[in-house]
């Protein structure tokens, strides 16, 4: 370990990765941070060092509303994807006995991902619309008499699309964690008279925690930064942080967009740090 | 060098007895041969050969960047026109920050108001523009007919001229130096689904009528959306504006407050940003009344769904664009650019644009390239005798159709406000974002 040769060898081996990170992650991020202090007018960005972008952003009630809205989407999506993802993973890991079937069913879960996520999202629009398939079916069977308006261009539609898009991100890591659980632990629990629930609570959930944490990081970071789902599914009537950044870029207000991006990045990093505090992924992996 | 070329060019340009159209036809017919070298003695064939090597780079918004125009330029004038389509924000940014990346800028008039003072464009000498007197008076005096009222907002004539060849100050009256040659313009209004509304609509105020709760939409492009919102607020009698195209902070705040109130009450089904979104909202019946653009109406109708571009008593919100010359153009390239502009106004493009449902800068020249029936339908508000065809040869309307809003004078003569950029633009955009987030 401490031999100079092997140390040099380690440095040599990590160089490519370090370079890639430096060029494609660190440099762009620093650029964004620098630009967030610049000034701008209608058509230009002007090198400067001002705090106006941040003071406006943090002082505006719109920002707080947008963050609240984004947190709402993230929390709801997280709760539903966790519920569905955990159940699906549990079924695959503990109910499906044969490895072949596990692989087949797992592949089935990925079939929707063979199309682009924009297409998966847009397909909801004719389905949920006022004259859409669902409303027609419900009215045809006489369950409702007026079309349900909340189905499309609403928070419901946004969360539905998010859950549809990102549940697999939850299934995969949880399934992975569950497959690592030593089956003899479950047998031991049963032998000692633990009920199904008790086994789930005291053995499976704690041991699936790393998977749950990784899945949560995936889902929360994606939803926090999303803009296209919110725009299409809310019919442009709701805002999210990502959408705000996208609008600012559209209006060439790059410094304002950079400031928003920095604040969002810090927010997401705080969330991820909090999650990692709760679960020590490194220890569990 | 430059002046020499200019004088040579002047000598070869046809006199008044030769019509522009005839000249172009002749030029096309003798493509490859020096233009009229037999008729005009001493004309150096070098020039005609050189101009074919010229490439002009034009950039602008999608509506007027039409490939068919570039092809026709190659055919008629011999030189190459490269087109780049960008969105309006990017167009404005490029015109200011990358002045050497283009030769011809195709920009909207409200963008011109911001861009021209940056000094990256040069004004055009109207003495060199052959059909200058045919250009619609909307762009010269702002009055379509002598007794029309001048509309609010960035009316094109207000930014159409500068004081001198090197000036960037807009002139208050027409001068010899024109900033943009108009290319394409139109009058926008609300689109409705007459089959789902079932009664006449005649005011902008109807957009916020509770009768259409959850079935209305407005476009979410702040600079244009705010104007539609202002047309609505004024029609409702809630707010009176000094100039809807340049509102005060208080006017902006009041307008947005009204819109937020309507949004919270559930008036809007959605906000749209792109052309296809507006088409889908209307075609699916999610929305029955909304801000709309004329090609979107055509797209809804082409699905066999009733949709009307409803004229309203308060008038239209108009927009328009034009082409300007880059500051760096000189010599042969500048001459080629003038050739292009003269060709642009000579009628072929005008007819092409008119057939798309837009209006062209010099209607009289376009007329010679359109059939009587086409002219009657698009420009005079007459019933179409045969099927109305798009420039690409698709049937747009069946025989017997009448254009919504009627004739050119009826539509362009009732403009209430032109698209514009406000002095309080930053404030407006921030308030608009509050409306979207509310």
Q: How many extended strands of chain B?
A: 18
What class would the helix/strand composition of chain A place it in? Answer: mainly alpha
- SS element count, helices of chain B: 17
Q: Report the uncertain regions of chain B.
A: 1-45
Strand content of chain B: 15-25%
Counted up, domains of chain B total: 2
CATH superfamily of the largest domain in chain B: Periplasmic binding protein-like II
Q: Could you give the count of β-strands of chain A?
A: 2
User: What profile does the largest beta sheet of chain B have?
Assistant: 13 strands, mixed
What count of domains describes the coordinates of chain A?
Answer: 1
CATH topology of the largest domain in chain B: D-Maltodextrin-Binding Protein, domain 2
Distance between the termini of chain B: 62 Å
> What is the overall pLDDT average of chain A?
90
| Spatial extent as radius of gyration of chain A | 24 Å
**Helix content bin of chain B:** 25-40%
CATH architecture of the largest domain in chain B: 3-Layer(aba) Sandwich
Under the CATH scheme, which class of the largest domain in chain B?
Answer: Alpha Beta
- What would you call the quaternary organization? heterodimer
Task: Offer a few descriptive terms.
heterodimer; A: 285 residues; mainly alpha; MetI-like fold; two-stranded antiparallel ribbon; B: 438 residues; alpha/beta; D-Maltodextrin-Binding Protein, domain 2; 13-stranded mixed beta sheet; three-stranded antiparallel beta sheet; disordered N terminus; SBP (chain B); ABC transporter substrate-binding protein (chain B); signal (chain B); TAT_signal (chain B)
């Amino acid at each position: 370990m401490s031999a100079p040769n092997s140390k040099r060898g380690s440095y040599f081996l990590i160089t490519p990765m370090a370079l890639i990170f430096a060029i494609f992650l660190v440099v762009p991020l620093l650029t964004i941070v620098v630009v967030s202090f610049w000034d701008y007018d209608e058509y230009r960005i002007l090198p400067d060092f001002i705090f106006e972008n941040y003071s406006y952003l943090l002082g505006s009630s719109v920002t707080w509303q947008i963050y609240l809205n984004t947190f709402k989407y993230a929390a709801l999506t997280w709760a539903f994807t966790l519920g569905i993802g955990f159940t699906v993973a549990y079924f695959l890991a503990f109910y499906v006995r044969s490895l072949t079937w596990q692989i087949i069913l797992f592949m089935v879960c990925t079939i929707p991902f063979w199309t682009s996520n924009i297409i998966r999202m847009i397909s909801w629009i004719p389905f949920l619309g006022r004259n859409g398939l669902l409303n027609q079916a419900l009215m045809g069977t006489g369950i409702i008499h007026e079309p349900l308006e909340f189905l499309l261009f609403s928070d419901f539609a946004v969360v539905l699309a998010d859950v549809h898009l990102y549940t697999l991100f939850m299934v995969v890591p949880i399934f992975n964690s569950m497959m690592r659980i030593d089956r003899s632990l479950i047998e031991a629990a049963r032998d000692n008279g633990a009920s199904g629930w008790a086994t789930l609570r005291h053995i499976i959930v704690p041991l699936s925690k790393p998977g749950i944490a990784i899945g949560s990081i995936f889902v929360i970071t994606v939803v926090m930064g999303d803009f296209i789902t919110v725009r299409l599914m809310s019919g442009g009537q709701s805002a999210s942080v990502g959408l705000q950044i996208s609008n600012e870029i559209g209006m060439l207000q790059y410094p304002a967009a950079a400031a928003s991006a920095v604040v969002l990045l810090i927010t997401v990093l705080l969330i991820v740090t909090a999650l990692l505090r709760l679960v020590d992924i490194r220890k569990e992996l | 060098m430059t002046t020499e070329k200019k004088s040579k060019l002047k000598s070869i340009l046809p006199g008044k007895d030769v019509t522009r159209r005839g000249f172009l036809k002749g030029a096309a017919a003798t493509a490859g041969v020096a233009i009229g070298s037999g008729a005009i003695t001493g004309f150096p064939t070098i020039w005609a050969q050189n101009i074919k090597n010229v490439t002009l780079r034009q950039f602008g918004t999608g509506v007027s960047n039409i490939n068919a125009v570039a092809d026709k330029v190659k055919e008629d004038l011999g030189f190459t026109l490269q087109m780049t389509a960008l969105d309006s924000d990017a167009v404005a940014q490029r015109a200011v920050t990358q002045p050497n990346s283009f030769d011809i800028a195709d920009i909207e008039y409200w963008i011109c108001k911001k861009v021209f003072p940056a000094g990256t464009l040069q004004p055009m000498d109207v003495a060199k523009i052959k059909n200058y007197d045919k250009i619609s008076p909307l762009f010269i005096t702002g009055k379509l007919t002598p007794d029309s009222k001048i509309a609010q907002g960035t009316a094109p004539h207000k930014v159409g001229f500068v004081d001198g060849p090197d000036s960037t100050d807009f002139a208050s009256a027409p001068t010899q130096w024109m900033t943009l040659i108009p290319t394409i313009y139109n009058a926008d209004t609300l689109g409705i689904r007459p089959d789902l509304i079932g009664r006449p609509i005649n005011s902008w105020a109807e957009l916020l009528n509770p009768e259409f709760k959850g079935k209305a939409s407005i476009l979410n492009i702040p600079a244009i959306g705010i104007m539609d919102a202002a047309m609505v607020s004024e029609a409702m009698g809630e707010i009176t504006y000094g100039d809807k195209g340049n509102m005060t902070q208080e006017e902006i705040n009041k307008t947005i407050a009204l819109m937020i109130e309507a949004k919270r009450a559930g008036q809007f089904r959605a906000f749209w940003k792109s052309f296809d979104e507006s088409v889908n909202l209307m075609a699916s019946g999610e929305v029955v009344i909304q801000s709309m653009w004329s090609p979107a109406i055509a797209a809804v109708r082409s699905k066999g769904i009733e949709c009307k571009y409803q004229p309203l008593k308060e008038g239209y919100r108009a927009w328009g664009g034009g082409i300007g010359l880059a500051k760096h153009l000189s010599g042969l390239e500048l001459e080629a650019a003038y050739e292009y502009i003269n060709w642009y106004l000579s009628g072929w493009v005008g007819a092409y644009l008119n057939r798309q449902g837009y209006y062209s800068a010099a209607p009289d020249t376009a007329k010679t390239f359109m059939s009587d029936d086409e002219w009657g339908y698009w420009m005079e508000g007459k019933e179409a005798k045969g099927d109305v065809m798009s420039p690409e040869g698709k049937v747009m309307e069946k025989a017997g159709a009448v254009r919504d809003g009627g004739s050119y004078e009826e539509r362009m003569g009732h403009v209430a406000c032109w698209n514009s950029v406000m002095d309080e633009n930053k404030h407006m955009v921030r308030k608009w974002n509050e409306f979207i987030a509310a």
